[in-house]
Amino acid sequence: TQLLEQSPQFLSIQEGENLTVYCNSSSVFSSLQWYRQEPGEGPVLLVTVVTGGEVKKLKRLTFQFGDARKDSSLHITAAQTGDTGLYLCAGGHGSGNTGKLIFGQGTTLQVKP
Amino acid sequence: DTGVSQDPRHKITKRGQNVTFRCDPISEHNRLYWYRQTLGQGPEFLTYFQNEAQLEKSRLLSDRFSAERPKGSFSTLEIQRTEQGDSAMYLCASSLRQGRLETQYFGPGTRLLVL
User: In chain B, which residues have their Cβ closer than 8 Å to the Cβ of A34?
Assistant: First the structure.
């Protein structure tokens, strides 16, 4: 069974602080997506990384895909209250017939003013 | 709005009743996925369609669950004889497979509560 382990599961920080969320697996994925989900809504895609060692930046968010394509991290600089939400990583296998995603259990982020 | 839509957004039912959910994917997306998400967990894959063909089903999908995509456009997910353990958010996603890359776009979900 392929698993994606996210850590930490919960994070409560003050506005302006930095944070990093980790996503680890023993399996190799051809792509890794990060989603953000608000309560009662579906996940919204933030980024897709496909190349080992790849780093992508989205404003204050920095995403990294591990060299071996088994792990990823999301770093947020100077967190804002609007960053509050559930962050999910999801691994995909692009080479096979199925595009199903394997999700981590999520990291709930609370940014306090 | 050209995103993925799901109906209903919320459903409360009594144990033993049947329920049906609908998903309308983004136009021209050939793949459609169903996932289930329980509180505090990430979504879990249930099944997916490429056009009208159902190509994979998870072991999570018991024989009380059935999904269809009759014309390769919208899809329905039916749960028969609902149980309290079926209470969850049911998410639909659609994608257009282009080479190795595939981006799934999720709908807002249908939250099911079985009493």
Answer: none
